[in-house]
Amino acid sequence: MPGLLLPEDRQPVIIAARRTPICRAGGALKSLPAHRLLAPVLCSLLNLPDGGTLPPAAVTDVVIGNAVGGGGNVARLAALEAGLPASVPGITVDRQCGSGLDAIVLASRLVAAGGNGLYLAGGVESISTAPLRAHRTADGTPEFFTRAQFAPSSTGDPDMGVAAENVAAHFGISRARQDELALRSHHRALAAAAAGSFDDEIVALQSVDHAGGSRDVRNDDGPRASLTAALMGRFPPVFAEGGSVTAGNSCFDADGAAAVLITSLSRARELGAGDGLLVLGSDTAGVEPSLLGIGAAAAAERLLAAQGVAAAELGLVEFNEAFASQTLACLDQLGIAPEQANQDGGALALGHAYGASGAVLVTRLLAQARRDREDGQLALAMISIAGGMGTAALLRYCLLDERPSGSPEGHAHSLAQRPST
């Protein structure tokens, strides 16, 4: 409802966000199944902003997105692996690539519904350890398949790369623009890593190396310093003869996890949080499966219209760069300059850990907002989803400890209002 002002005990706010390193599938994290990737991240979120520690039993629920795991409720498994008591439940969300962002959205809605609880929400994917999948044939023998069906055959169910080619052709996204975006993503990610921009958000993991010994994994392994414009131009099309989508302007599969601590404004203050990201609203939209990459734009367009926010008002934008073609098509449709999005690089450089990627977007937004320290700054997270969908969330950075005179409810409470245009 336009202009709705939620009371402080129902206004969702994200006060902490952490992630693992994002590493190529089959690489540095290949020995860790999903629950062991996620558990250290959940543990890290129990360290509160004021330096205290959140009692594990105080967690209300664990809400986690996952796309290609083995089922069995990885949220619950990871919560127990993290040492949370048996009294803390868990729920696993599957909206494929959007799962991590949708898990955060679900947790925010639980807060808005009056829970006033403490939620650990995010996503995880271990593509390296994902189980083999098979259909049972009439005689009972297995028929293995590489991915699930996302749309009926009658409507078309293209592979992700083919859909990226469809988007490039439909929206006129040139090969040159795709390569330029991908190269910029790598350059930005390398610069951010060198500047220490990822240090505070990454939880180091211990993995098993090729020799059977343990090793600490502390850094993303995707960004490539060796990439140049000339090298990008030499990659051949992968998904269509004469096409424009290449290995260079597409993301790679990755392992990783990310999660946030989300609660109400009133509870955040009790915990001593000095700042956070208010969740102002979210939306999920459907589009034609053949153009699935445009789903994020459809969701964001509807969300921004409902919130009365123009693209020019957005200070921070994080889009999951599964393919450069769909990233450019979505940003073009929304009127957002590509240079504005993904200030520290995106999935083209860091990789796409399916179920975790949406939560990585929010983790990055909180880190960037804290770096800027611009009270009231608007931020948008969005991701396109297999089957022809997209999810977007509108967030607003606020300083929780500032209460200007004349506002008995407090500054953070006033910021929960829908921003005017």
How would you sum up this structure, described in words?
Residues 403-421 have low confidence and may be disordered. The strands form three sheets. Strands 1, 2, 3, 4, 5, 10, 11, 12, 13 and 14 form a ten-stranded mixed beta sheet that branches. Strands 6-7 form a two-stranded antiparallel ribbon. The chain has a two-stranded antiparallel ribbon with strand order 8-9. The chain is an alpha+beta fold. The protein is 31% helix and 21% strand. Strand 8 (205-208) and strand 9 (214-217) form a beta hairpin. Helix 1 (34-44) packs across helix 2, helix 3 (99-115) packs across helix 11 and helix 8 runs parallel beside helix 9. It has twelve helices and 14 strands.
Number of strands: 14
Beta-strand residue fraction: 15-25%
Secondary-structure element order, N to C: EEHEHEHEEEHHEEHEHEHEHHHEEH
User: What is the 3D shape?
Assistant: globular
Largest sheet entry: 10 strands, mixed
The total count of helices amounts to 12
Keywords:
alpha+beta; two-stranded antiparallel ribbon; globular; 14 strands; 21% strand; 421 residues
